[in-house]
Design a protein that fits this description.
alpha/beta; binds flavin-adenine dinucleotide; about 500 residues; about 25% strand; 13 helices; 5-stranded parallel β-sheet
Length: about 500
Amino acid sequence: MKVVIIGGVAGGATAAARLRRLDENAQIVMLERSGYVSYANCGLPYYVGGVITDRRKLTLQTPESFHDRFRIDVRVRQEAVEIDRESKAIKVRNLETGEVYRESYDKLILSPGAHAVIPNLPGIDSERIFTLRTVEDTFKVHGFVETARPASAVVVGGGFIGLEMAENLRDRGLDVTVVQRGGHVMPTLDADMAAIAHNHLRSHGVKLLLNSDVTGFEERADGAVQTNLAQSGPLAADMVVLAVGVAPESALAREAGLDLGARESIKVDEHMRTSDSDIYAVGDAVQVKNYVTGQDALIALAGPANKQGRIAADNICGGDSRYLGSQGSSVIKVFDMTIASTGVNEKTARQAGIDCDKVYLSPMSHAGYYPGGKVMTMKVVFEKGTLRLLGAQIVGYEGVDKRIDVLATAIHAGLTGPQLKDLDLAYAPPYSSAKDPVNMAGFMIENLSHGLVEQFFPEDVDALPRDGSVTLLDVRTPGEYADGHAEGFVNLPVDDLRER
Ligand code: FAD
């Protein structure tokens, strides 16, 4: 059996290694357009920021190491340019020599990833505008930062890559402004949770321009690039990083007549098989099911790509592995803060037509009496009636990653909110509390489900009667109240509540 893999990073490299482990005799060819395979996309921003200093650390494998360990024929700087399904062969262009040759296959795996979206705006071709996807892109940004010594940057897009670049450029001393089209950064979060991230970014000197649309760029005589905005005046900076999202790299699949899904992604079944039974596709290029809503979704993350690569290899080797859907579990470091989410947020749940409720809590990362504990803010979204867990968002410092993974597991297992209280989680004072934050969320949801508590949210306040039947209490300390409070709320600290 001869398997050809297009794309040699997350999904492709995993599929290649798995194929070899399952079939010692398969002929495996992996084609990669860039000069590197199995590179650490997720580590790229940290090379720019100087956290990762050895460029060799960015590539986990080389063509030689792949060949030595797995006897896989890895070819970098080779671009697949056409799939001929009829004769089961692909046309490949050697980017070093320009030569085009044919490579036959019995099974083909597409793992071409997603390309950075580059909006068609005036001035977009400026040499000072960068995107970040490949190792080569990273060296370009890094080289520019090292040699041109820019003092300022505009980062367009406040998603994962935008924020990671904002942090890393800030760490290198640049004056950084993040321009974001929507009302908040990190679209995986709801606006209320993102507000915490906004404060944190600002406290580290990152300027945020929200609800701002870029209309174009201009190169100025002084060497700066000017970012023009629809809602406010232009921004001048020494460089621009574009991180406005990714789109599936599906041109090959489209031209080969494979079925496509949302936003031109490649349609696959749960075995990762495309509409051609000899062609599999995995990773950022494919349409998946959202594990929580069951709707079609595009979720570009490394975990799903790796798992799907393994599944495609299993099935090619006669197995029956299935991909159950993506939950979108993610975590990001923003300076010293950790932001994580899993499942769907409240906005997405409502858009999917799910009648949902939510709890917010601000537990300590570990027992309050043990030094070093930090508050985290959690929002857990669940379905009304069934109490099925739908999603969670956590913003905080230590222990955020651990709680989100517990919640991700709970959602995957189909647990209800109150079942979180039953989870037997590890505890010692330096690590947690005897009632872990995840258990606490379970207690709260159980209280709601038993009717012990009724919740009102900030968005409900305006609709409450002002005829004296409702008292608006702010139960924080007088100091916290003095720092800022909602209009109409009377301060009555929680510790004084019974007495007064
Ligand atoms: P990729 O890993 O992108 O690999 C696709 C490869 O295919 C590319 O190298 C491309 O050159 C090659 N290719 C495309 N077309 C052809 C062709 N015609 N011929 C030959 N080769 C071709 N995800 C997380 O979960 N956590 C993170 O922290 C995180 N951080 C990230 C940071 C950055 C800067 C970037 C860019 C991505 C990050 N991601 C992160 C996303 C994650 O890297 C991707 O979801 C994952 O790599 C997708 O795997 P893939 O195999 O589908 O595509």
